[in-house]
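Suppose you are handed only two things: the residues of a chain and a line of SMILES describing zinc ion. What would the bound structure be? This form records exactly that question and the answer produced for it, so the two can be stored side by side and reused later without any lookup.

QUESTION INPUTS
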Amino acid sequence: MMMDTIAKNLSEWPIRVDIELLKSIQNDLVQAKISNCSLANELWYLKQFMLIRMNYVEIFNMLQNKQYSEAWSSLADLENTIIMIKDTFEIPQIYHIDYILEYIHKIQKFYPYKFFTSREEIIKEMKCGICGAVVNPAKSCGHEAGRVYCGVLCAYEITKLDLISLAVVENPYDKYAVLKLSDKEHNYDLLDFLMNGLSDAFEEWDYIEKQVPKPEFKNAFMNKPCPCGSNKKYKHCCYGKEYTLMPHIEVIIKNPKKKLGDNIIISNGLWKDKE
Ligand SMILES: [Zn+2]
Ligand SMILES: [Zn+2]
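ANSWER OUTPUT
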């Protein structure tokens, strides 16, 4: 009965977060850990699916409140959780978890974070979160990190670590360490624009990336002097050159909360001077 109710809630569209149902799953999970391991494992996954949706709503609310930096870390947490679960469990499509993952990636795209610090480190010692045994690639305790044992997730805890170096990278494996500059702050214009148009966490939206002429080249004439000041005709100078273009993002929202102008936003770069 309980399982049917959970499956029904998880399959509902639009997504509806049911806190009471989550509480009763939690209670049943505590019981099942003692009496029924396979049920406990099943409940653990169902609980995660409910938490994923709840966390996504919380992140959306953070974004609406312009808590962009906090929301970034939470997005990375949620992304990692979903990827970890997908690794060991085939999530039914109808539970909308892939949908949420897709929207996490879309939102990340609107962030001005392109550079990250990355640590190079050597793990000296890890302990199994289930049995407490010291583990290393050569010596396993039999528990596998990321698997669920009787309703408990196995995670390895790093207990000794040597830091080798720090590097600045693009597209890191670990998205947490965002590079910050002391005299600049991040430019969140794209996110502001997006969030102004959205009213619900599970509202559908999309974007198209475009290249459009920079303002100075927008109204250039083929047979007139080139806007770059070379005294050559535009058609013999900068016409068709890649540097005359700049990236634009067109946001597509079916029923925007506020009117979004022509729905095209120019990114004015990743950084702003601090006020
Ligand atoms: Zn173990
Ligand atoms: Zn030119």
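WHAT STANDS OUT: The pocket of zinc ion (ligand 2) is lined by residues 226, 228, 230, 237-238 (CB under 6 Å). The longest helix spans residues 37-64.
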